[in-house]
Each structure stands twice: as C-alpha cells, then as structure tokens.
Design brief:
Blueprint lengths: L24 H26 L4
C-alpha cells in the first residue's frame, strides 16, 4: 500500500541506497501485491489438500 501511494521514504530521493524512483513505486506496489496474493493462494490450497478437504 505504501508503494502504491508513492511515499518518498521508500525511494532514493530520501535514501541513496534504495533503487526505486518515486514514479516506479505504483508498479512495484501492485506487482508485490499480486505476487503475495499468488503465494497466499498457493499456500492455502496446499494446506487444504494436506488436510484432505479436497
């Protein structure tokens, strides 16, 4: 959420060792959200299959 809102604390504008420019933050935030949801769905499916629900 912080990346999508383009907070400058997460860019190289405040910290030179961070790689993202302010304009890149929405894409990075949306990408991270999508990847985290895919991992969550995979984990839930794996847990449910091990529990013999499916």
């Amino acid at each position: 959420m912080f990346f999508i809102l383009e907070y400058k604390q997460y860019t190289h504008a405040c910290y030179s060792f961070l790689a993202y420019a302010p304009s890149q933050l929405p894409f990075v935030g949306i990408s991270m959200f999508a990847v985290m949801n895919v991992i969550l769905v995979y984990a839930i499916i794996k847990i449910l299959r091990n529990a013999s629900i499916f």
